[in-house]
């Protein structure tokens, strides 16, 4: 899809290139003010993201007062709590009683209902088409609409215009009746009049108006805006927003990137800009400074020197536009931008080049506005030059203004019709020119219409005058030759300001392309106007454009079948020219002249309901009657129009019968096997679903359709790509539709249909869950016999050996529970397969369980419940349920201390001064307080650490050895095994070990006789005792024998080494030698023995 937009007379054009029959979508190209910008087709939705972000920031700015915030408007307001807090902040009132813990849907609905009722009954805000279920169900579009209503009421209407309400003059009373957008524009133009702002989107895209606004509210805060370049739009906007946020307390409700985005919407811009009337200049603001960018970084600084202002003089007003009347005073205004009034000079020259027939005078308005009033005396083209300090200061200098005769006021006349369009007319077309005058003294006989070919040939024009006011003059002409034609519209011999009109007449054209629909006949301002284009197989490049009083939003939807649906939204009343182009040339009948008017009060086309088989896309047979119903009884008091066209643009007769007030029964009999379009309008607007596309086919017989193939047999398994065949060769023409659903939960299955080209089709599908599936096959809109066809899908892996252990049938709420899934016995394992588990609470909420893969084929699954009742656990392996039905657990409130488990060495033994640890597991035990108490010879220091898995680690330290009693209670009851007894011993210290006895005295050492001594370790912590005996001749012939005599006291027996050697006895405790003293401590024992 290619999109082309120009800014000439609000001309909007879309080009759609067609290959064969189908319309092919391309990237969108935008042409605006002579600059090309490429955007993707998804840009259509960017404004929605910007709006959601802006509204979210606006809400959070208000919720700061109560220390709350929202992250997602779609979900965070669903329980009503934040919505109620927001309304209390905005209204400064307390809302009625509401549920502060809305766990159930009914409670959430009740909360939201409290908020909406408060808005309507207390605040007097009218809410349309929204109820509490829309908020609870997270319907984002309606939620954004509600937020916009709050912004309008509390931010724009209630706050911004308070200063204007205090003024009692009639002008401001009139302003209060204007729409919010216009009031905001009026205020902005009063602050920065030189920009002549007419919208809140495109005119702000380069950042300069925002910089000017900041500088206007705080003169000297942003004086360099006048030097900014449009190419630096993001930088400009960022500087202005940063200054406004820091010094004027204007929060960034919209980011700079969003502010300059061409897709930004007016609501987001109004939300941000509406803060400026309440701007408050902060102390210390750098008034008189400019913001420049450092050369060595991206940070901004404020230099002391004041930047010299470059004048941005602008001029506007009726006196600079054609249509001025001779003898009548007119004016235009000059925005001086800080210039000296005395240096301005105005030169107005009449058609003769002289200024003596023009009376002019200056007078100063408020602020920087200077008004020039003049009264031209001559008829014809006048030239106006504006000088400052003897220099021409405006790019538009000189202005050319047509001055008309005093008896002819062109502002009271309007010229319409296809006959003045510059393109689209063909030889032989009968085209019209219509002239409408609202003046009271206009004379139709003085209106002259002349049509000439470029060769001077006069084309006859048949005219018709109306004497009824307002005065109408209509002329119809039929060109007979191709080429340029000139259309003169004169009054009393003088051309209208826009006359003459140049019209290009093309030669006759043959094309299969047809355009039709209500949007080519009439429409309503600010409402979608729709029409349809059928290419009928013609290969071409389609284009669409809209010319008229305003720029119109235009979108094109490719139906993928050689047709397209076009929608445009005009922003002002008047006549529009709708161009439908084929290869850049208007098709026959284009441009279509459409009159756009106002909607009738109280008419709501969205409430019109169309129903029945007659508007279904398929199921229509040539020559057979189809019916449908149109119910407009609730939509208001206006006319319903129903008509239908086929793809060739031929109208199909629809019979209507009134069955109730504004309720109609409609029927039709299609006479051709073509695509038809049924269009229903109410109050000139398309109703929901219109136009309805229907396909008319020859008579078919769905009973002759056959189905077969492996995808319908018992061998179907999950994860496999299965297929079956649908044979329609004998059933006649018709479209095949296949729908496949899970029988248990109704979830659809993605299917692909491949046309084999011989009247048969191959249907492919793949399912992930085993179970029964239902297949529905439709042919020509009707189900074939035997539907639904039931297919039993088996798992692609045998899970009968998977074991679930430790699952309790009764669990406690607000407590973590655990069970294990053991897959070690699987005979066939899937490489990337994992165990998954979901839990469904009694109120319907779904949650995923936390799973830890132990990497040994087992999985630990953790879950918790918050409400009482039966919960369903669905455990799956590789998306295949392990059980035919979900596992049921019953959650209750309470606790059970016997489910607590404790383990660790610190429950039995430990060392003095060394942390002793054990672990307490309360998973599945319910809610309760865990207490740890330790009693013994000394006080103990206890600390705990939460393991975040339903268990905690306990660590304690004691200062004296002895027996300690450890009590572990849960909910004030001892857990199994409590109290525990732990023996705490001194820490290991070889210096505290004593050794003595005859075996350590030199006089007692004899060869080949047992030598004995004692070792006392009771004062040291537990460790291994070792004794080594050797000499310079080698080790002793026997290993020493160590026997424990009492707790910590050992008797050692050894044999001395060879005769005449020095015997060395090494006593090691905990791998370290004890001191060489009989009663005290030395490094080692070194004994000299004399052997006899």
TrEMBL record:
This is Filamin-A. Filamin repeats lie at residues 312-403, 405-505, 505-596, 605-696, 697-793, 794-891, 892-984, 985-1083. Keywords: Actin-binding, Repeat, Signal. Belongs to the filamin family. One of its GO terms (molecular function) is actin filament binding. It comes from Trichinella papuae. GO terms for biological process: actin cytoskeleton organization. Pfam families: CH, Filamin. CDD domains: CH_FLN_rpt2 (cd21230). PANTHER family: FILAMIN-A, JITTERBUG, ISOFORM N. InterPro entries: Actinin_actin-bd_CS (IPR001589), CH_dom (IPR001715), CH_dom_sf (IPR036872), Filamin (IPR044801), Filamin/ABP280_repeat-like (IPR017868), Filamin/ABP280_rpt (IPR001298), Ig-like_fold (IPR013783), Ig_E-set (IPR014756). Residues 1-18 form the signal peptide. Residues 49-155, 178-281 form the Calponin-homology (CH) domain. The keyword Chaperone does not apply.
